[in-house]
Structures are given as C-alpha cells and as structure tokens.
Amino acid sequence: MNVKKNIAETVKIVLPLFLICTLMVFLIAICNAVTSPVIERNKQKTFDRSIATLFSIASTEKLKVEKLSFPSNAPATLISAHRIYNEDLPIGYLMEVDGIGAYSGKIRMLVALDCSGRIIDLLCSEQSETPGKGDRVLNAQFYSEHYIGKSSQEISVSPYPALSGSTKTSDALYSAVNTALEGYALLSNDATGGPS
Amino acid sequence: MNAKDILLQFKNGLFDRNPLLVQVLGVCASLAITTTVSNSLYMGLAVTAVLVCSNLLISLLRRFIPEQVRIAAYIVIISGFVTIVEMVMNAYMPSAAAKLGIFLPLIVVNCIILGRAEAFASKNTPLPSIIDGFAMGAGFTIALLLLGAIREILGSGSFFGIQLFGQSYTPIGILTSPPGAFMTLGCLIALIQYLKDRLQSKTKASADQTHKDVKNKEVEPNDL
C-alpha cells in the first residue's frame, strides 16, 4: 500500500516536470523550424561575402567555390578547404580552421591564401572571446601587422604575434593560421586535386 | 490592477529595487558585457525578453508546478526561453548575437530571472508578472546602459562605436578591463544609494513638517 502511495506521490511530482519539459521542447522545435532556414541563409550569405571580402572581389556573381577533400592525416582543426575561382580563373584557396586554446574555447577563422600559399586576408567567423578584451586581436589591423602577405616560412621566422592582455586569443589565432598553412601544404603534396 | 500599481512596479524595477544597482544581481555578465553601449543594449533586451516570457509562463503554471520541483521547473522554462531568444537573435540579429557571444546562453544562470520567477511570478497572476518582467528588465537595461556608456566614453572615447574625441584624447584604459568595470559599478551603486538616502530623508522631513503643521492646527483653538 505504501509502495503504491510512494509511486503515486512520485508521479505527481515528476509528471508536471515532464510535461513542462515537453512544452518547452515543443516551443523550441517551433522556433527552430522558423529560424533555422534563416540562420542557414545568413551563414551562406556571410560565407559568400567573406570570400568576396577576403579575395577583394566586387561581386559574388562570378565567383565559383570548389570544395576540396583533404588527406586523412590533416589536422582535426582543419574544417574545410575550398578552391576559389573568379570568372573560371583560380585565384586562391580558402581554409576554414579552428584556433584552439582561446580564452573562451576556440575561434573559427577563414584564411584566404593565394595560389602560392601566401596569406591574402583573414576573417574570424565564430568566436566567444571577451568583448573589447580578447577579441582585440581579431581585427584587420592585427592581421595586417602580423600575417597578411606572409608565407609559412616568413611567419615561422617572424617575432611571435601576441598582444598583451589577449595572449590566449593570440595563441589561438596563431594556431589557426598555422593549421591553414599546414592544410595548404598537405593539399600541395596530395595528388587528389589540391594546389599544384 | 490600476495605473498606480503599474507605476509602483516600474519605480521598483527602475529605482527602488533595481536588479543590478540595488539588488546587485547578474553582476558577472554585466561586468563582462558592458565594454560598449551596444553590447549593453543587446544584453538588456535579451534579458528583458527572457524575463517577460518566463514570468508569464511561470505565472500561468504556478498552480500546476509542484513545490518540490519548482526550481527545476523554473530552470527548464528559463533555459527554454534563452534558447529561443538565442535562435531568434542568430536568425534576425546575427551581429548582435555574435557580439554577445557566450554571454547570450549564459543568461540561463542570471539570478535576476530565477529571482523574479521565485519571488514574484510564482505568487502572482500573469498580467502583474508580465509588468514585473518589463519593469525589472527595463531597470537592468538602463543600469547596463549607464555602465556601458561610462566605460565606453571614458575607456574608449566613443559612444555606440562613434569616436567622440579627437586624437588628443587618451582613453582611460582601465575602464575597459574587469577592475574598471568593478570600480564603475561600485561608483554607480554608491550614487544610487546616495540618491535613495536623500530622497528618503526629504520624504521624512516633509512628513515631519506635515505632522507638525497638523499638531499646531490642533493646538491653536485651545490657545485662543
């Protein structure tokens, strides 16, 4: 009798909580159905705009993006690699990489390289660094001072690019750039359609 | 519920029981996010949206939620609304969502929201609960804007990203760092306390004066 009573009491407590969870899941599902296509569209637009900005192309209409597959020994932080064409002419490569060890986890960077593996430009696509603090290294001025126009060899012999107060983000950015350059090198050595 | 009650609730939220400057709740995210005014505004609006929605649902379900699991239920409701606000911001205000970064999902652990759920929404009907959400949210937003404005103007020499002073201005760099945030918040809390004390002593003085006047009027006929 007591067991039955206990079960009834437990159900009385747990059931409303279960129903509340179901209600919230339902609300989130509705919201997700409405917002996820918009989020995807935004992501694609941002990606196209990023390519246009990184490669200094005025219009995205004549832009062609070819996704490349990279070898199995590629670093896990190399997310994707693309060959970029403007009016059917290859103009460079875009590496999507993660920089690990940032203050708030990781940063995701888009690294544009020309056909010879020199950095054209950088863009941060995802980050959760402290606003006004860690994110100070994720801007055009810092990129142009330390990375833009440089090749893998030049970066390895340059002074370590770090900003006081944003050391962890600087480290993550450095690791992201190196991953992108490593990815380029791997694709160069790979016969399956990488840079030649 | 009449207009006087609504005004009283807004007075509470904005001044008497301001969540950040009087109750000192939600300090962690507030200190981190208020490096710029725009970040402060986005954070304030996001928290207000979550406050209003969670207050409404908790108030509607107040008789249905068992006493033993009420905190768990509130957290489920609050985290659900935070996820919804995050999705909406990612879809329609992506730059604002990117600026808030990790502090947007962290609204779940903001004590103001759970505090209002427990102290107000769980004991009141939906309409006062919605108004309470708006009032507390407005108080929090204004406090963040004040903090953000001081830190951005003095710490970076700009307002909403627009440079206010020329090259000759040397920003007070410490204000953009965490110690600067603590100092600015401390000064604002002190200012609010000073204003509250002044207002209270003025009210007390005028009440005393009225009391004396009434006494004098009562004494006058006997003297004559």
Largest sheet of chain A: 5 strands, antiparallel
Integer average pLDDT of chain B: 89
Which term fits the overall shape of chain A? elongated
User: Largest beta sheet of chain B, briefly?
Assistant: 2 strands, antiparallel
Low-confidence stretches of chain A: none
The ordered H/E elements of chain B are HHHHHHHEEH
Biggest interface in this structure?
A: A-B, 31 and 33 residues
Distance between the termini of chain B: 48 Å
Structural class of chain B: mainly alpha
* Beta-strand share of residues of chain B: under 5%
User: What number of structural domains do the residues of chain B give?
Assistant: 1
Assembly state here? Answer: heterodimer
Strand order of the largest sheet of chain A: 1-2-3-4-5
What is the strand tally of chain B?
A: 2
Number of strands of chain A: 5
What class would the helix/strand composition of chain A place it in?
A: alpha+beta
Written overview of the protein:
The complex is a heterodimer of chains A (196) and B (224). By secondary structure, chain A is α+β, with helices and mostly antiparallel strands. Chain A contains 4 helices and 5 strands. Chain A folds into 2 domains: 1-41; 55-189. Chain A has a 5-stranded antiparallel β-sheet, with helices on both faces. In chain A, a hairpin with a 2-residue loop joins strand 3 (89-102) and strand 4 (105-113). The longest helix of chain A has 53 residues, at 2-54. Chain A is elongated and about 80 Å long. Chain B has 224 residues and is mainly alpha-helical. Chain B has one domain. Chain B has a two-stranded antiparallel ribbon with strand order 1-2. The radius of gyration of chain B is 22 Å and the shape is flat. The interface between A and B is medium-sized, with 31 and 33 residues.
